[in-house]
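Our preliminary data section would be incomplete without showing what the modeling component actually yields. Below, a chain of 173 amino acids is followed by its predicted structure, encoded as tokens that our downstream tools consume directly.
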Amino acid sequence: MEGDSPTLDLGLVVPAAIAAAWGLRRALPWADKAAYTLWVSAGECAAPQQVLEHAAGAVWYGQPEALSRLILGFGGNAEQALVNLGADPALAPQYLLELRRQTEAPLIEPHLPIQDAIGLADFFVDTTIKFTRYSPGSDTVGGPIELAVITKHEGFKWAKRKHYYPYELNREA
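Predicted structure:
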């Protein structure tokens, strides 16, 4: 659909985009030891929103079940499951925090090499695509995965991009 693909000022066409930045003070003055999201919609890029402060980690949106189970160790219905098992509804959020503390997978480290971060992002998206594919209901996530990286030394750079045209026409300038 035409209206679903906004164009960024970088000349990129994306169906919807979320970018995260961590400690990029030189490249992006607003980013320093915190993670931010940049939402792109209808051709407009909203102001950066801080999602993590002084910590490395992951934030996910959209179809969160696969990554919640993978990273946190439980899905979105865990709090209700605790209540169903007899936990006091007032204490269930505290139990959930303790459960998370004991089961969360430490996949993201502050000094994760950029190639590992790219591979991890690709893994997260691919896992979500495959999880929703085999879950009941319609496929709600899919298509080619495109990844870009913003670093203080190289700025914006594609790490993985679909090619609709021959490689010769997609080379960098």
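The chain has five helices and six strands. The longest strand covers residues 34-41. Preliminary results of this kind motivate Aim 1 of the renewal.
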